[in-house]
Amino acid sequence: MIIGLNVLCLLVNKLHLTAQPEGNTIESVMRLAHLLILAIIILTIMLLTVGLQRTVYLEGQKRQSPLVLLRTGRYFLWRVIKFRLIFAPAVWILAWLIFLATKELTSIETDFLKSAEAAPLVYGLSFAAASLVLVTPLLLMLPLMVVLDCPVFASFKLLRQCKLLDAKELVMLFLISTALMLLRGFFPSVKSASTISEWLLIIAWHIVHGFLNLVIAVLAVRFAASLDLVHQKKRSSED
Fold first, then answer.
1. What are the CA-CA distances from residue 153 to residues 69, 94, 139, 150, 219 (Å)?
2. N- or C-end of the chain: fewer Cβ atoms within 10 A?
3. How many domains does the chain fold into?
4. CB of 169 within 8 A of CB of 79?
5. Other Cβ atoms closer than 10 A to 133
């Protein structure tokens, strides 16, 4: 279901990108509606994934309904949002700095945002390098929050007690996921895709990558649980 929603997100994104709002009120409203639906789908995927992690930690492989996953994930809603608000900009800024350094050493003339189409390999490598630099918080902060039921900054402090090299399978899968992200740069973009073969290729990539990320999420929460860490402070009312 999570992977299916991910593909649906892709299709809604296509509708949003191809809408032409200039001078047309109906098209503007439709584009806004697409953007709202896209945000809801992304939020739902986030909650389902966190709900999956939490129930895997508490009840192992017991089958859970989507409503249970959503209800469980909703408890962590603000922490997930805080985590995303902190680390999404951090990854972007670091990727931008890596891109600027690469630009100085090469003959690339495009700017960072336009490089997604003009120099997709360099663009992808910038984000891959940024993700590798931040690999420990990206992989373990959310699982620590899920396992220990602790706030965002408490999970960040606990990272120093985590040795990621002890989770070799997790690291290997993360590297494969990063390599797949690089491979995505050679595919047609969602906005430019027009033929059936192009769409089949993009959808197949999203299914494989989505499944891999779910496996990483489950392995990460199991690794966090195996560390036997303890969060002694009380939860704040904000969480």
1. 24, 20, 15, 8, 22
2. N
3. 1
4. no
5. 15
Q: Kindly give, in sequence order, each residue whose CB lies less than 8 Å from that of residue 225, ignoring residues fewer than 6 positions away.
A: 57, 147
Domain that holds residue 136: 2-226
Q: Is 231 contained in some domain?
A: no
Those residues whose C-beta lies under 8 Å from the C-beta of residue 68, and which sit 6 or more positions away, are 51, 55
pTM of the prediction?
0.83
In a domain, 23, yes or no: yes
45 contact partners, CB below 8 Å, separation of at least 6: 2, 5, 6, 9
- Report residue 176 as tokens: 């494969």
- Residue 30 tokens read as 């439709």
Domain-located, residue 214: yes
Q: What is the pLDDT of residues 86-124, one digit of tens each?
A: 999 999 999 999 988 888 888 777 888 777 777 777 888
Question: Read out DSSP for 20-48?
Answer: --TT-HHHHHHHHHHHHHHHHHHHHHHHH
Quick one: tokens of 215?
């496996």
User: CA–CA separation, 4 vs 11, rounded Å?
Assistant: 11
pLDDT at 173 over 90: yes
**Within a domain: residue 114?**
yes
Contact partners, residue 231, CB within 8 Å, separation at least 6: 148, 149, 150, 154, 158
Token digits for 194? 């027009």
